[in-house]
Amino acid sequence: MSTSLINTKLQPFNATAYHNGDFVELSEKDVLGKWSIFFFYPADFTFVCPTELGDVADYYAQLQEMGVEVYSVSTDTHFTHKAWHDTSDTIGKITYPMIGDPTGRITRSFGVMIEEEGLALRGTFVMNPEGEIKIIETHDLGIGRSAKELVRKVQAAQYIATHDGEVCPASWQPGEDTLAPSLDLVGKI
């Protein structure tokens, strides 16, 4: 049995990331104050991972317009991230920070470490500006994620954060009707 991390706070961390040609130091303090996505993946120089990271890169400008920062994380080092960025056309288009977590501390704090392999599961975590986890998606290693659906989920999380008493139904898109839960709706949907 595991305990859900929904509504829990981001744990303290210090890490080095490869970001726009530089190595940068990051901590939980850098994450607070804006919406954030932590996008865990097993390893650099693999197969499904570049398709996912490239997909997120294609939506990164839209996420930035929404006030969201993306942090990809694997148990590789920041040096390995740079080497992958420099040698892969798909990874070369990434402009969001790529965090190295060789000790696995960050990966473990999000509950996605595969201990026997020293690798992360495919885990996506969306946090509000207060550092509370609002969305969790975890996949087995062979199942890739959709950045388009991730954007939709973030839009829904941002909407309900600013519209008290409303909820977003399945497949909700911005501009569509939401629901206001009440006794009158029970059994009518």
From TrEMBL:
Domain of life: Bacteria
InterPro entries found in the cross-reference section: AhpC, AhpC/TSA, Peroxiredoxin, Peroxiredoxin_AhpC-typ, Peroxiredoxin_C, Thioredoxin-like_sf, Thioredoxin_domain
Alphabetized UniProt keyword annotations: Antioxidant, Cytoplasm, Disulfide bond, Oxidoreductase, Peroxidase, Redox-active center
Main enzyme class: oxidoreductase
Subcellular location: Cytoplasm
Reactions mediated catalytically: a hydroperoxide + NADH + H(+) = an alcohol + NAD(+) + H2O
EC numbers, comma separated: 1.11.1.26
Keyword field contains Transmembrane: no
Domain annotation Thioredoxin: ranges: 4-159
Principal subcellular localization: cytoplasm
Keyword Oxidoreductase on entry: yes
Task performed by this protein: Thiol-specific peroxidase that catalyzes the reduction of hydrogen peroxide and organic hydroperoxides to water and alcohols, respectively. Plays a role in cell protection against oxidative stress by detoxifying peroxides.
Family to which this protein belongs: Belongs to the peroxiredoxin family. AhpC/Prx1 subfamily.
Record PANTHER family: ALKYL HYDROPEROXIDE REDUCTASE C, THIOREDOXIN PEROXIDASE
Assembly behavior: Homodimer; disulfide-linked, upon oxidation. 5 homodimers assemble to form a ring-like decamer.
Protein name, as recorded: Alkyl hydroperoxide reductase C
Chain's gene name: ahpC
